From TrEMBL:
UniProt keyword annotations, A-Z: Ascorbate biosynthesis, Oxidoreductase
Organismal lineage: Eukaryota, Viridiplantae, Streptophyta, Embryophyta, Tracheophyta
Domain L-gulonolactone oxidase 2-like C-terminal: 248-285
Keyword Oxidoreductase belongs to the record: yes
Family of the protein in this entry: Belongs to the oxygen-dependent FAD-linked oxidoreductase family.
Listed Gene3D superfamilies: 3.30.70.2520
Organism: Penstemon davidsonii
Pfam families documented for this protein: ALO, GULLO2-like_3rd
Coiled coil: none
Record's protein name: L-gulonolactone oxidase
Reaction it catalyzes: L-gulono-1,4-lactone + O2 = L-ascorbate + H2O2 + H(+)
Annotated D-arabinono-1,4-lactone oxidase C-terminal domain residues: 110-236
Length: 292
């Protein structure tokens, strides 16, 4: 019963969101780390949702039916009419609101990516606390596939979640860190994107990452000639229009990679700068001197 997919008292999700917003608004990195530490301690206590007897976690080893492991969480069965409890993403409450970036890297260069991430972390470890409030860096494994949009070799998937502001033009604490990790994955190491879990910049030049992309589009046109299973976003992605237009603040929501300060938020002290480890990255970094 994965903890992230459990139904909890709505006040808990609201409190977590309010605490994270307060830390963001006051630029309180230590506050986010304290919040993250409490989350990690709780997840360890309940084994992230594993249960020995369908009710509680009483200790390792956890032995049971694989069918139970394959199901997600009890949110699936929670009554919609009960407003005191809810799933964390329920739009009726002011609960969690975050980005999820998911990169698929060949197993041959995954270790290099991790080394770069560690180098970035080591510069200021507390800057990474934002991911620990959610699931940290979550790894999964995918076998080589001959599907047109499958992986051409055995691959490792890395997911990481991080804070998203209520307003798309509001910059985030440690904005530059997550942008650099994102660009490391998708640009430096050529990671392929998860098709449902990324910001738009992850799909820049995506057609070039699949040798059979053209065949996929041909089949799509054949089986869906009326484009019923498409939308503006998927059409942009499939036909390579992402990243052509850069507007003020576009980097804040991952609509573009910044190349000018206006793509960030100069009025809030965020300017377009080079990455700290991956120097070719272009990220929105906060500068306190600009506000003095």
């Amino acid at each position: 019963d994965f903890v992230g997919f459990q139904s909890n008292f709505a006040i808990i999700a609201k409190s977590v969101r309010a605490s994270e917003k307060a830390a963001e608004n006051t630029r309180n990195t230590n506050g986010k780390c304290i919040l993250a530490s409490s989350f990690l301690a709780y997840k360890k206590l309940i084994a992230n949702g594993l249960k020995n007897n369908n009710l509680l976690f009483t200790g390792y080893p956890v032995i049971g039916h694989q069918s139970k492991m394959q199901t997600s969480g009890s949110c699936l069965y929670s009554p919609e009419s009960n407003k005191a409890t809810s799933c964390a993403w329920d739009p009726r409450i002011k609960g969690l609101f975050f980005y999820e970036s998911t990169a698929i890297l060949p197993s041959t260069n995954f270790s290099d990516f991790i080394r770069d991430v560690k180098r970035l972390r080591d510069i200021k470890p507390e800057n990474f606390c934002g991911a620990d409030i959610y699931n940290g860096f979550l790894f999964r494994y995918i076998k080589k596939s001959e599907a047109y949009l499958g992986q051409s070799e055995d691959s490792i998937v890395v997911d990481f979640n991080y804070y998203r502001a209520d307003d798309g033009l509001t910059p985030r604490l440690n904005q530059d860190v997550w942008e650099e990790v994102e660009q490391m994955a998708f640009i430096k190491y050529g990671a392929k994107p998860h098709w449902a879990k990324n910001r738009n910049l992850a799909f820049v030049d995506v057609r070039k990452k699949y040798s059979n992309f053209g065949k996929f589009v041909e089949v799509k046109k054949r089986v869906d000639p009326l484009n019923l299973f498409s939308g503006d976003w998927s059409d942009e992605i499939l036909f390579g229009k992402v990243g052509n237009v850069k507007e003020d603040g576009c980097a804040l929501e991952g609509e573009c990679i910044c190349s000018e300060d206006r793509h960030c938020s100069p009025k809030n002290g965020y300017f377009c700068r080079s990455g700290l480890v991956y120097n070719e990255a272009r990220v929105c970094r906060f500068s306190s001197s600009s506000l003095s």
